[in-house]
Write a structure and sequence with these properties.
globular; Alpha-Beta Plaits; 95 residues; alpha+beta; 4-stranded antiparallel sheet; 31% helix
């Protein structure tokens, strides 16, 4: 079952997002393996990212194998704090 992650970065900006995206996505025009949807934009008080993965396990592989290591190492110009995170199993995904 597909799994969605919502990250909200209070005070986050487009420039910080672009720095993070460059570090964790393999190519600007391709999604990481297992990710089927990605959207991001300005929202109330910051920046929000929504990603849908093929499964919860797919999300956890991306989080543990790509996302966390990159942020632990430090991404110059990226978000300065951890996001507010929520997640849910996707009931309906239309493409």
């Amino acid at each position: 079952m597909a799994y969605a992650i919502v990250h909200h970065f209070p005070g986050g900006t487009k420039e910080q997002y672009e720095a993070a995206l460059a570090a964790v996505h393999p190519a600007r025009d391709a999604l990481p393996k297992g990710q089927v949807f990605h959207a991001a934009g300005p929202s109330a008080g910051g920046w929000t990212i929504v990603a849908v993965h093929e499964s919860k396990e797919s999300w956890e592989r991306f989080r543990d194998g790509t996302l966390r290591p990159a942020f632990d190492k430090g991404i110059k110009g990226s978000f300065s704090s951890s996001p507010q995170e929520s997640a849910f199993e996707v009931y309906n995904l239309q493409r």
